[in-house]
# Entry
Amino acid sequence: MLDGERLKILTESAKYDVSCSSSGSKRSGEGTLGDCSKGGICHSFTADGRCVSLLKILLTNKCCYDCLYCVNRRSVDAPRASATPDEICELTMNFYKRNYIEGLFLSSAVERSPDYTMERLLETVIKLRKQYGFGGYIHLKGVPGADRLLIERAGMYVDRMSFNIELPTENSLRLLAPQKSAKTIFAPMRQLSDDIYKDEPGKFRRGFLPAGQTTQMIVGASPEKDGHILRLTQGLYDKYKLKRVYFSSYVPTNFKTEYLPTTPVGLLREHRLYQADWLLRFYGFSAKEILDEDENLEVGYDPKCHWALKNPHRFPVEVNTADYEMLVRVPGIGIRSARRIVSARKYGKLDFEMLKRMRVVLKRAKHFITVGGKFFGNDDFRVIKNLLLLDSSSDNYTQLSLFSNDEISGSVLTGEV
Amino acid sequence: MIIYEIDNTLFGLYSAVFESYKMQEIPDIVTSKPLYQMPIGTKIKKIETDEKKANRVQTAIIKYAGEDTVQMLKIALKSCLDEKETICFNYIKKVIDSQKDIAFDYGDLTVMEFTDLKAKVGLEAHRFKGFLRFSETENGVLYAHYSPDNDITELIAHHFKKRFKYHAFIIHDEKRNIVAMYDTKTLKCFTPPVPLTVYINETEENYRKLWKEYFDAVNIKERKNKKLQDNYLPRRYRKNLTEF
# Structure
C-alpha cells in the first residue's frame, strides 16, 4: 500500500498540472463502483482557492528529461519515488469510496522512454477499470513521443487525455525543454481529435474519450506576449477541438538559469488570460478582437471591459431589443444575466428595477445600455473609464495607485478628473 | 395582518392557497412555525390540510405551469428559511392568477424570490455531493454524517445510489435526525427510531491520514488566498471534512 512519504513526493510533483476538472463526461459507470456527472463535482478547496476533485498523482517522478522549468529535472537532486499500478488503483478506489474524489488524474515523469512510460500508465488505467471495476472519472496525461497505438488504446479506457504544449512557441520549447518537440506534442493531439470523430464526422465516437482533450502552457517562463498566447489558444480550440486550455503561472525553482526569470509572474496575468479564455469559449469573442499579437492584456481592466471601452461606437445597446450576442458584450452583463434578460423580456418590457432584480451589475452596465430608451449612465467617456478602472482594482492582485496609469496621472496633474 | 398557519407539507401549502381563494383574502405571512411575538391586530388562522382541496390546487398548477413546477416547489420547501412558505404561496398564487408558466419572468419580484429560494437549496445539495465524507464501518457499510442548512438528504441520496451501486450506505443528517439508507437494493429516507451507534473499521484511520497528507501536498503555498477558499468552502461545512 502507498505510504505517506511517497504519496507526498508524487503529489507535490503533480500539482503544477493545474487541470482539475471532473466535468465533461456523462457516463453511467460500467464497473462495480462509480459513475460520472456531467458538471463535475468539487470535493474540497485548497488554501489558494483551487478545487480538489481528483486524486492527482504521478506514477513516478524519476525523469530522464531535463526541462529547465521543472522541479523533477534529471539533473536536480530531488527526492524520487515510484508507485506500482496496484498501489495507485487501491488508493483511488478507497478515496473514491469515501467520497474524497471524483476520480483519478494520472501523470508520470518520463522514465526510460516515452513508450515505456506510456505502457505503465496504460497498464494502470486498464487495471483500474477491469480488475478493480472503477467507473468514475479518469484523466490521463499523454507522453509526447509515445506510440500511436498505445495512445489510441488509452482513449478507450479514460474520460480525458491531455498533452501539455508547455510553451507558446517552438523556439521557447527548444530552449527550455530540449527533449520535447512541437511535433511529438501536436501529433497525438491531432490523432486523438481525429479518433474522437472516427466513425462519423461531427458525431462523437461512443465510449472513446468522452470528456475530450485539454492542454496546458506555462505563462511567464518565456517572453511571448498574451496576444500570441491567445491566438495560439484559439487555434487549439478550432483545430483540435480541445475542451480547455490551461495556463500555469511559472513558479521559479531553485535552479538559476539565464533562460528563466527569477521572480514568479504575478497572478494577475494568469487571471487576465483566463478571463480572455472565457471570452473565447463562452462570449463569442475572437482573439483578434481582444488584442493585437504583440500586446499584453490590460492590467487595469478585464478584457471584456477593455473591449467595450475601445469600441464606444457599439454602445449603448437597448436592453429590450438587442440580441443575446451583443448583450453579453456589455460590461456588467454576464451569460446568466443575458439569458435572464432574453427570457424575461418575452413576458413584457423591462425597466431599470427589473434589471436590478435580475442582478445585472448596473454599476458597470448602466454606462453601456439604454432601458426602454432611457440612459442611466454617465455621459463623459473619461469619467466612465476612471470609474471602471478603480472598480477592477478591488481585485487586490496589484497595488494600483493614481499614477500607475499614464492617462489618469496625466489628468490628475492638470486638475481634471 | 393575516397569518396562515399550516403543517410542514406541500399539501398543507396547497390547502392554504385554496383557503385564500375561497375566502377572497391574501395572507401576509404563511408559515409552519408561528412566531410568538406578534404585532397588535394580527389574526392567525390555522389551516387544516385537506387532500381533496389540495389536489385541486395541484391540478391547476400542473395545468398552467407543468409538472416541473411541482418539483420546484418540493425543492424550495426544503429550505431552512422562515419565509419559504410565504414565498412559495405567492408563487403559486401568481401561477394561478396569470394562468401560465411564469418561471422565466425574472423581472418579477415574486419569481426572483422563488428562483433564489430554490437555487439556495439546489446549491447546497450540489456542494454536499462533494463535501460529504464517508467512513467504512466494520461490516463494510459506508456511513456519512453531516449538518446541512437545508433539508437536502433526499436530494443527494439518489446521486449516491448511482455512485455506489453495489455498496450499502447510510447518510445521516444529524441536525434533523433523518437518515437515507441504501441496502444495495432500495433507497429509503426516514427518522431512525433509536439513536445510531456506528462501529468504524480500523483501516479507516489510515485512509483519513493519507487523505490529509494528500490535501496538504496539493497546496501551492505561493498562491494563498484565504478569502477565495472561504467563499467556495464556508467554514461551517468544515467540521465534517476529514482534511480540516
About this structure: The longest strand of chain B covers residues 142-146. Chain B has eight helices and eight strands. Chain B touches chain A through 54 residues (CB under 8 Å). The longest helix of chain B spans residues 109-131.
